[in-house]
Design goal:
Blueprint (H helix, E strand, L loop, with lengths): L35 E10 L4 E6 L5 E5 L4 E5 L5 E6 L6 E4 L5 E5 L4 E5 L7 E4 L5 E6 L5 E5 L4 E5 L4 E6 L7 E3 L5 E5 L4 E5 L5 E6 L4 E6 L5 E7 L2 E7 L5 E5 L5 E6 L5 E5 L4 E8 L1
Antiparallel strand pairs: 1-24, 2-3, 3-4, 4-5, 6-7, 7-8, 8-9, 10-11, 11-12, 12-13, 14-15, 15-16, 16-17, 18-19, 19-20, 20-21, 22-23, 23-24
């Protein structure tokens, strides 16, 4: 059965199958070109169930506080302020091509828009079915993972239509440099690849409860895994090897890279966002 949980609060899209599930995950240790953890530190703290992460055009980190609905901004100098507060519990966040901030609100089936400087939220798309991950393509169209209806929808300037339909609900979304859309399916333990024309293929299986996904600048796909049994970041390399990158997190959910290639991870079961310096 599908469930929305937040450490006892039934409000958040951190979804998982029971701990009785057994997944045989390939772990590769002898690869010379894989990224390695150089250091992990607390980048910012004081959040309330931090989840979605994104960087704005100025390099500030945006953080969704799932329980309170507050959208926080971590400035380059380290100060934290509030951009806005969502009317409904939200989880995922993205920055659009014009700098506006977009937040998926699964509580009321909308994607909301906020000016880049913060302020009042307005509805950008309505009528979604438990919207989760959101991502923009190079043309500026917004893609929305509708978890309950097993669909990814596309919002263009003129329409809101179905782009792809799956057997299991989509959670995280990310595009590669070629315009392919990658989709995590947390309950199916898989990641799909959708071509620009809409052809769906399986990219990876056996990834226990993949939550959010993000590419580094070398084409490696990073995957946060958020269950009581798996609190790790897994990497699928550009050569398609799968291995565990780090397990030093507290229920990792949101992941994002800055312009320097450092990885940021929201620790949902704690109050802080980690910064990971990577070596190649």
């Amino acid at each position: 059965m599908r469930s929305l949980i937040v450490s006892g609060f039934c409000v958040c899209l951190v979804l998982y199958a029971g701990c009785s599930d057994t997944i045989n995950q390939q772990v590769v240790t002898q690869i010379v070109d894989v990224p390695r953890v150089s250091s992990i530190s607390k980048h910012a703290q004081g959040f309330s169930f931090p989840q979605g992460l994104a960087f704005d055009s100025s390099g500030n980190l945006l953080v969704v506080n799932t329980l309170t609905g507050v959208i926080s901004r971590v400035h380059l100098a380290g100060a934290v302020d509030t951009i806005t507060t969502a009317a409904q519990v939200s989880a995922w966040i993205a920055v659009g091509p014009t700098g506006h901030i977009y937040v998926s609100s699964y509580g009321d089936g909308t994607v909301k828009r906020v000016p880049s400087t913060g302020g009042t939220m307005t509805n950008f798309v309505t009528g979604q079915d438990n919207p989760a991950g959101i991502a923009f393509d190079k043309a500026g169209n917004l893609y929305i993972a509708n978890f309950n209806s097993n669909q990814v929808r596309i919002k263009t300037p003129s329409a809101d239509t179905v782009f792809a339909t799956f057997a299991y609900g989509p959670t995280g979304l990310v595009f590669d440099n070629l315009g392919n859309l990658f989709v995590s399916h947390q309950l199916a333990h898989t990641i799909s690849k959708v071509s620009p024309s809409g052809t769906i293929s399986t990219f990876a299986t056996g990834i226990l409860s993949p939550h959010n996904i993000a590419f580094d600048n070398r084409g490696n796909l990073f995957v946060s895994q958020s269950t009581p049994a798996s609190r790790t970041i897994t990497v699928i390399t550009a050569t398609h090897h799968i291995y565990q990158f780090s397990a030093d997190f507290y229920w990792p959910t949101g992941i994002a890279f800055d312009s320097q290639g450092s990885l940021y991870v929201s620790n949902y079961d704690s109050t802080f966002v980690s910064k990971v310096t990577i070596q190649y």
